[in-house]
Design brief:
Two copies of one chain form a homodimer. By secondary structure, the first copy, chain A, is an alpha/beta fold. Chain A has three domains: 43 residues, lambda repressor-like DNA-binding domains (434 Repressor (Amino-terminal Domain), Orthogonal Bundle), CATH 1.10.260; 127 residues, 3-Layer(aba) Sandwich (Rossmann fold), CATH 3.40.50.2300; 129 residues, Rossmann fold. Chain A has 13 helices and twelve strands. In chain A, the strands form three sheets. In chain A, strands 2-1-3-4-5-11 form a six-stranded parallel sheet. A four-stranded parallel sheet of chain A has the order 7-6-8-9, sandwiched between helices. In chain A, strand 3, helix 7 and strand 4 form a beta-alpha-beta unit. The radius of gyration of chain A is 25 Å and the shape is elongated. The mean pLDDT of chain A is 93. Chains A and B meet through helix 4, helix 5, strand 2, helix 6 and helix 11 of A and helix 4, helix 5, strand 2, helix 6 and helix 11 of B. Chain B binds a DNA duplex (30 and 30 nucleotides) through helix 2 and helix 4.
DNA sequence: AATGTGTATTAGAGCGCTCTAATGTAAGAA
DNA sequence: TTCTTACATTAGAGCGCTCTAATACACATT
């Protein structure tokens, strides 16, 4: 920077002003500085800049599982909104584990990201609240009544009810649920499932098997379900990934989908939309969620909102080929 | 840091030593400092640390397309290797575009990442070479004979040959290829396809349609292919994603796979392995590639290798259900 | 006792910027 | 002319660490 200043014959302060194109710099000097910077191949050191200005213009995004297309879709919304607001996004890999998420969060905090978006978090509310004392955070895809941090998610209870209503309307009674273990939205989806089942007078058929939001998990859970003596005629999987795994096993075991068993997922990822899969599922408006998350963050960063806000989007049933009437039997 | 030093009754220098657990610190003081740090909830500022030490212990990873599971799989290898070497990974989203990749690279350079891994890059060798003057970079999934930066990739020419050999052995002659536009490995796979076709005396049947490594691209290309007056009996798609798109369309048009048309992908992603898809494809050892990339980077960072090294892994044909003999006709 | 060796600790000069407060300068108002 | 006001520029004090060189001290060696 000093070299640039010398070459341009100005002070380093002026170089600084030019580099972050501040107002009140004469055109003449601006050109001088830019030319000098170009000639020397000068590139501002963000570390120093951030250290001095105490802000990084960077938002850290922790994605729970890069293998799940849902998170790639959320990221699209985040990226679009961030681009518009002149913030840059850095992504941390949660590795589908609590430890992985914690590490990513820690890295971002140490790099002094201005804010964090945590998608599909497995972290406890308590930890998240403590974290948000250091930097504002928005949790995506998970409900929370926290008074401290913001959230952007779909109403999963409603989503689960949509699934059950749909299956019941088709005539199903023995509807099982594969949950998502410690994943995001698990509690609400499961509660929604239970409530809806009872509302339809099917309380006795409630059957929950543990999954983990992965394909392998869905596979294993479906195996358990289909070996059960009163096997279900419909399976509501906690997300698309596990639904696909379940689909696989069910057909492998010789059952027809949806002739013998209906399968419904959750998230409406590209996976579900694939013609070969054509999974009935619940849509989450990922673009909206991503944009909302950035919006909430910016409100905290620019303005001075301190009250926690929870953006809730509407889920929507997407009917495809994996759901139909139960076998006559 | 000063507060910690005061509370512990030592100098800031000693606090610094303790925080990066350097040797030659007495146990007694170490405990004092750690206790003080804990009490104050002190967390070192990486920005300042990096500014002062001129290294960040961070490797920037630019992933071309988060929607493509191939990159998630590469990342697994990178993450594992980075964890072992005490480096942290930060991910940049290439947004499947050149501009997106450039932006991510720029961000990482400004944050002074110690090194970069660029997976599936659409950037020019020239730009990459210039970039590698600032920080060492390893390009994954793309061949290059650069004398400046390192690469880790599969031998795509061989991979393409495996595909063609397989299809020819099944009896196919009219084998078309959907390429990947400006994506990584495109040139080699296409060249491998052409060479192998000629080697089998099928030069006249060479037929390349442009794709872009996305599902939509594969879909569109397949549409074109199947409407051709001499439509192919086999399609070699440049990657799994486009193969899946092609698969969709081909079946939608009423053709049987593999009865009427065989389809082969590339990458052996989880997508291809899905029972519903069961795509014949070429395996790339993603774990090996990821580890190799980090390894090459560390050699540059720790040691002082300056000569470009190119790690080449072996591709392998994975036979599944989308390839079979051509129709008798 | 003098000297050497190794370990533990610290002062203080950077790292490369930003930002506040001060200074300079030109044009319009009183 | 003198005073305002607005704009343009700069000096220099941090930001929160690391790292070199210096210092202090205990212990072993001659």
């Amino acid at each position: 920077m000093q070299q640039v200043a010398e070459l341009a014959g100005v002070s380093t302060a002026l170089v600084s002003l030019v580099m972050r194109d501040a107002p009140n710099v004469s055109d003449y000097r601006r050109q001088l500085v830019l030319a000098a910077a170009d000639e020397l191949g000068y590139r501002p050191n963000v570390l120093a800049r951030n250290l001095a200005s105490r802000r990084t213009q960077t938002i850290g995004v922790v994605l729970n599982d890069l293998h799940n297309p849902f998170f790639a879709e959320i990221l699209d919304g985040l990226q679009a909104a961030a681009d518009e607001s002149d913030y840059r996004l850095l992504i941390g890999n949660g590795s589908h584990s609590q430890l992985g998420e914690e590490r990513s969060v820690e890295t971002f905090l140490q790099f002094r990201a201005d804010g964090l978006v945590i998608a599909g978090s497995m972290l406890s509310d308590d930890l998240l609240e403590r974290t948000s004392r250091t930097a504002p955070i928005v949790v995506v895809g998970r409900t929370s009544s926290s008074k401290v941090f913001d959230t952007a998610n779909t109403d999963d209870q409603v989503g689960a009810r949509l699934v059950i209503d749909h299956l019941v309307a088709l005539g199903h009674q023995r509807i099982a649920h594969i949950d998502g273990g410690r994943g995001a939205g698990v509690i609400e989806r499961r509660a929604g499932y239970r409530t809806a089942m009872r509302a339809h007078g099917l309380g006795e058929h409630i059957h929950v098997v543990r999954g983990d939001f992965t394909e392998a998990g869905g596979r294993k859970a479906a195996q358990t379900l289909m070996q059960h003596d009163r096997r279900p005629t419909a399976i509501f999987a906690g997300n698309d990934l596990s639904a696909v795994g379940a689909l696989d096993i069910v057909e492998n075991l010789g059952f027809d989908v949806p002739g013998d068993v209906s399968i419904v997922g959750y998230d409406n990822t590209a996976l579900a939309a694939m013609h070969h899969v054509s999974l009935t599922t619940i849509n989450q408006p990922t673009e909206e969620l991503g944009r909302a998350a950035i919006g909430l963050l910016l409100e905290r960063l620019d303005g001075d909102r301190t009250k926690a806000t929870h953006h809730v989007a509407e889920p929507e049933l997407i009917r495809r080929s994996t759901s139909g009437s139960p076998p006559a039997s």
